[in-house]
Every structure is written in C-alpha cells, then in structure tokens.
Amino acid sequence: MSYFHILGFPRIGAQRQLKWALESYWRGDSSLDELLDTAAQVRVDNWQQQIDHGADLLTVGDFALYDHMLNASYLFGHLPQRVDSSLPVYDQLFLAGRGRSQCGCGVAAGEMTKWFDTNYHYLVPECSAADEFHLQPELLLEEVRAARKTGKRLKVVLPGPLTYLYLGRSVDGSDRLDLLPRLLPLYSELFEQLSQEGVDWVQLDEPVLALDLPEAWRFAFEPAYFALRKSGLSVLLATYFGDLNENLSLAFSLPVDGVHLDLVSGAGQLSRALDLLGPYKVLSLGVVDGRNIWRSDLDACLAVLKPLAQQLDQRLWLAPSCSLLHVPVDASTEPVLTDGVQQWLAFAIQKLDECALLRNALADGEVVASARWREQAALIQHRRQSTAVNRQQAKQRATEAAAVTWGRNTPYRERLKLQQEVLRLPLLPTTTIGSFPQTQEIRTLRRDYRNGRVTPEEYGAGLASEIARCIRVQEQIGLDVLVHGEAERNDMVEYFGEQLQGIASTANGWVQSYGSRCVKPPVIYGDIERPNSMTVAWSRYAQSLTERPVKGMLTGPVTILKWSFVRDDQPWSATAYQLAAVLRDEVSELEASGISVIQVDEPALREALPLRRAEHQAYLNWAVNSFRYCVSGVADSTQIHTHMCYADFDDILPAIEAMDADVITLETARSASGLLKTLAQTPYANGIGPGVYDIHSPNVPSAEAMEDILLRSLALVRAEDLWVNPDCGLKTRRWEEVVPALEAMVAVAARCREVVLEKAS
After folding, report:
1. 607 is annotated as contributing to ligand binding
2. How far apart are CA 255 and CA 273, in angstroms?
3. Which pTM value belongs to this model?
C-alpha cells in the first residue's frame, strides 16, 4: 500500500494563535511560558490533523516561532555574530529575526528575502570565511520527544546542507561553499542523536536543485551526501518548486533512500524519474498543489498514480507538492463567498483529506464510487463550467492590450523638467512608500463597519479624520511628497480584490508572510472587471488638505497577481493584462481628479521571476509591458512612481529600467551594499530612492546609518535623481516609532542636500 505524508504544515494556528501569542509576548503583555504553551498546542494540533487523516509518517521539525531557516541557523550555532550567544535562546532568535527581544537590547535585524518564488520571507544566513558551527539540538529534540508520545513513526524535516549555504549571504566576499566541510559533521552528529530518539526518517529539503546551479554547487552534492550516508536514518531528499531538469539525474544518483518530486510545477519530470529510480529508492510524488487553494482533480491524479502503485507498492509515497506553509489552514471555516467560490477551495486540512483519499483509492478501487470522491468531482466540474468565471469583454480587452508594446511618449529627462514645473520639489525630495500605522482604533472602526455596528457615514467620518491627521503629521515632519496613509485599506492587495469582479476575499484564508506577520491573499477565480473607482475619492480628499503633492497609491498587476491565489485555468500573463486594464482606468481617473504623482507598486516583480533563466525573458516581457500599459496613458507632467522590496535586483535591473517609471523606491536598509554594488556596475537612469529606514524592525534607525546610505548613493546617482524614503510601507509600525524615524530621515536629507549644494557652488 502506498504511503501518504506531508512536507510541512502551517504553523500560525487555525485562528492565528501563534501570531497573537508572539505579539503579546513582544509587547510584554504575556510571559515566555505562555508563548511556548501556545506554540506547543499549535504543534500538537498540527500533528493531530495528520494523525486523524491517516498520515503514515508524522512530520516534525517544520514548526518555528519565527522562521525555519532562522531555526536552522540556531540549530547549527550559526546566528549572526552580533547576536550575543550567552543570551537565552529565544532572545537570540528574536534579536536575529527582528532586531529586538525582551532582553532589553537591540541589534541590526537579519536580512530577509523571499523563499524562492513564494510570498514567504526567510531570514538569510550570514556567512563569512571564519565561521565555525556547533550543534544546538535542544529545541528540535524537545519537539521530537513530544511528537514521539503520539506513537506514530516520525520524519524530521531539515533544510539540506547545500540549500542552507546556497541561500545564505557572504558578508565578507568569501565563498559560502567553503563552509560545507565544517557544516556536514554537524548533520552527521544530529542524525545520530535523532536515530537514538527513535526517528525513522529525515527529510532533507534541497529545493535549490530546481535552480540553475553553478557547477561547483552541483558537484558538491555527491560528496556531501556520501558523507552523510552512514547515519542509520533513512533519508528523503525533498525537492520542489519546479522541474529538476539537468539536476534530476544528480538527485537520483545520491545515496538517499527516497526522492520527493513536485509534479504540480514539474509534471514532465516523472517519466525520466522512473527511468532513474532504481529498485530500492522511495519515490514521493507531490500531486496535490501545496501552494494554491483549488480543489484537486482527483481523477486526473489517480490516473497518474495508479500504474505506479502497481509497480512500486510501498515505495510510492503521496504528498502535497511542497510544504503546506504557503496555504491557509482550513477552508471549512469559510462563509459563503462571492459566486460560491468557497465550494472550490482546499486549504491545508482539505489537502490532507485529498492525499488520504488518493492513498485509499490506490488500495481500494471502490473509493472512487464514494460520496466524498463524487462530491469532489462534481465541484471540479462546477468550477469549470461556472459563468462567474468567464467575462468575454474582459478577455477581449486583455488580449488586445497584450498585442501592443506600451510606453511613455517622451524620454525621462524631458518628462522630469515638466514634472518639476508642477511639483517644485527640492533636491533629494523626501517621501514615504504609502501606508502609515494602522492603529487599533482604525482596525476597530473597520471591523465595526464590516459587522454593521457603525453606519457608512460614521465610517467615512472616521477615515476622513485619520487621513487628515496623517497629512498634518507629514507636514509637521517636513516631508515633500505626502501620502494619504491608506487608513481605509486592510491590505495593499486584498483592498483591491474586494472591489474587483472576478476576485473573492476569504474570511480566514491567512498565511504567514514572516514572523508574526500574516496576510490574507485574495482569490482570483475569474475574469476581472472594475465596477467603480477604487482610490480616487480618498486621494482627492487628501490632496484637498494640503498644498504639497499627495501620491495616488495603487498596487501593480504583477503584485496583485503574485500575492493572490490565482486561477489555474489560464496563463498568468492573461490575468495580468486583465488587472492592468482596470488599473489603467484607475490611473486615468486619479490624474483627471488632480493627482500629479501616482505610485503603482510592483514589489513582487522580482519574486515572480521564474526560477530558471531560460524562462526569464518571456516573463519579463509581459510583466513589464503590463505595468507600462497601466501608466502609459498619463501626461508627461504626471510623475509615475513604483516600489520594490526584499529581492535581489541585479539580474533584472534592465527590466526595471524598461518599466520607465519616473521614480523607483527600493528596499536597501538591510542590504544597502548589495544594491549600491549593483548600481555601480549598472547605473540606473531614472529617479531612484534607496530605502534608508528599515521598517520591518521596531528599531528607530540612527541618523548616521541613514546618512551613510544616502552619501554612498550620491556617489552613484545624480542628485537630481535621488529620493529619500523608508524601504517599505509603515502600516505595521507604531506612531511613536515612525515619527522620530521620519524626522531623522528628513533631517538627514536636509544635511545631504547642503553637502550637494556646497559641492555644486
């Protein structure tokens, strides 16, 4: 009989219990013991779900209070050197992750970036030539011992050694691969301890095998895994997020006991994998989508699996394609959604059910006649045939837009002169990225309005009051280009999804973004249309309160696409052009209402880049063109901004320049050296604002740190093109952090402005 397991489970809890417990502890409202009790209960609940659904192996080690890569850094004694190793373990973890903990001290928070092409942020391991590792297994062993009480066979999940180092960052220019011989003995030592604890399997996640790996890294796999082969544990090599292509034979040549393949994003590799499998290895197949929320076509999955089950028997394992970290917990809690979309959804718990059904159907052909199987098949067909999915006018407009190469009519330098005549901005103008703190009062007002406890008039008055306050504060601080603060928006993507046809908003579809930060991605289920304007009224109101320019704020088509759960029945490019069409209408209305600066954010442009270089250009062609379609209809005197964050921009800087935004703001507070090095090699021709204020940490940045980034930027960017700004929106921060940080930022800009003017004179 085939086995069923998972690669990982969401760790926030069905009601986001871990989020609330973390934030309560960080505020000082609860104790560490209370936080750990909540975490332990979430783990137990996750294990119980696997047990209840009949998983053959219980997955352990996928849980983390903040981030699994951060946990791995602690496990191997490899936290950043600035984190005091004599502190209690949780102080160390939170200092590395967020720059602050309950110990009363603060340090620079670790760099975050996206986990491959997902929307999850991980803490980047920091590497140097002098690094030494030492094993600190207590947290993991504690979890293993707790899981062992269930009586189930255990499978412990760890980042593989090559993936851990490859995803790290060298802080001194040294080769991270040189650290591998120092790291491998710790894996061997850990395997011995896990074996003594009664663990049967260890799952080593090596998703870097889905990348275009440099030859040195490819060649390092075989000796590394031969060094680990005498552990006494059975090893499952887990790959996901794409077809392994040239790395497929490498994966199956390694001395491991099984290989997991993602058939959702790499269906074409199955036949080649069967040729390489051999007579002993387990083949784990990810046939249920671990990254999207649509019900699986069980008949199609069974057609793939059934002949394999006869051939492989217990050597065939079934699983989701990747960790279920990337989907919400339970779709059964969803109320009735737009167009009945809730019927089509499968979150983590439902995906466990799908895997169990498939496993049981392989063992017993009568399962396909069961009510549960028939219900799933009927819902799959219902979605395919739904008239709510297909809107011919939206399809036609997107098709026509995709056939045109869009762009502004006038070069940037000429546009800049016209824009300066309107805006009258100083050198090194200051601005923010868009959102300001969402206070408890604003959240309560929004919740009460949603629940009918306040009238539309009361809700509007409350928002107007908050927007007016935000404008006054920005004027007092001395910012040059203001924003309305986005008090009306629950999220930069969900807000737009709620106002567009073809997109549904869930009630409980939360997923972890980083640490305690959770987001609720919209569900793009059909063709997209805009019934009404979405941002014009509040932007116009904010502009009426000040003589300084106020930016209109929109989220771009690729980011809405990437940060949503997207329909899987048409290419992403088709959906992107549908989004771009409705945003183009919104841009036009903002301009007509007197908004002279419009920001269309595309922070997801880089993270949506395909993992393989061969696919980059095709993606960038439609991604950049859909952005230009949004903004190309404005006058030359209207200034277009965009924003990107938490990604490596080196390989797409030409594409970013091709977007031809008048100003781009980038995250650099945690990774300034990397971006500035890129700019030195590939100068950027339009306006640019390297972020000087790290808003993902509660620390108020020092003026010296901000000034350092600005002065180094001035060596690479023309003063007339350089902007001064935080590296992201301020929604998650508190006013008492934001005001002093922005005051310091404005003061730093003024000092650097004087330096520029003195040099010019």
Report:
1. yes
2. 15
3. 0.92
Q: Pairing state of beta strands 639-644 and 663-666?
A: parallel
Q: Is 598 annotated as a binding residue?
A: no
702 has binding-site annotation: no
- Using CA atoms, how far residue 308 sits from 70, 576, 604, in Å, is 38, 37, 38
Same domain? 224 vs 369: yes
- 205 & 165 share domain: yes
Tens digits of residue pLDDT in 348-378: 999 999 999 999 999 999 999 999 999 999 9
Portion of the chain with pLDDT greater than 70, in percent: 98
Determine the pLDDT at residue 101. 87
Task: Tell me the average pLDDT across 534-542.
Answer: 97
Q: Rounded distance, CA 318 to CA 333, Å?
A: 26
Boundaries of domain holding 45:
3-65+126-385
Residues 170 and 23 in one domain: yes
Is 743 annotated in a binding site? The answer is: no
Rounded CA gap, 456 and 445, in Å? 11
Instruction: Evaluate whether residue 541 is within a structural domain.
Output: no
What's the structural domain count of the chain?
A: 2
One domain, residues 277 and 416? no
* 484 included as an active-site residue: no
The response to whether 728 counts as a known ligand-binding position is yes
Looking at the structure, tell me whether residues 300 and 430 fall in a common domain: no
* Residue reference for tokens 């002098």: 130
Catalytic annotation, pick one of 5, 68, 121, 696 = 696
- Quick one: three-class SS letters along 41-55? HHHHHHHHHHHHCCC
Fill in the amino acid letter for 464. Answer: A
Is 434 marked as a binding-site residue? Answer: yes
299 and 420 fall within a common domain = no
Ligand-binding site membership of 281 (annotated): no
Residue-wise pLDDT for 425-442, tens only, equals: 999 999 999 999 998 999
Q: Which of 9, 34, 14, 16 is nearest to 24 (CA)?
A: 34
Which distant-in-sequence residues (6+ apart) come within 8 Å of 139 by Cβ?
71, 74, 75, 89
Domain-located, residue 215 = yes
Amino acid at 575: T
Instruction: Give the CA dihedral 81, 83, 86, 91, nearest 10 degrees.
Output: -150
The 10s digit of each residue's pLDDT in 155-200 is: 999 999 999 999 999 999 999 999 999 999 999 999 999 999 999 9
User: What is the tens place of the pLDDT at every residue in 683-742?
Assistant: 888 999 988 888 777 778 889 989 988 998 898 899 999 999 998 899 989 999 999 999
Mean pLDDT check: name the lowest of 58-72, 378-392, 643-657: 643-657
In Å, what is the CA distance from 541 to each residue of 236, 472, 550?
Answer: 58, 13, 10
Consult the annotation and say whether 421 binds a ligand: no
Does the pLDDT of residue 646 top 90, yes or no? no
Indicate whether 418 and 341 sit together in one domain. Answer: no
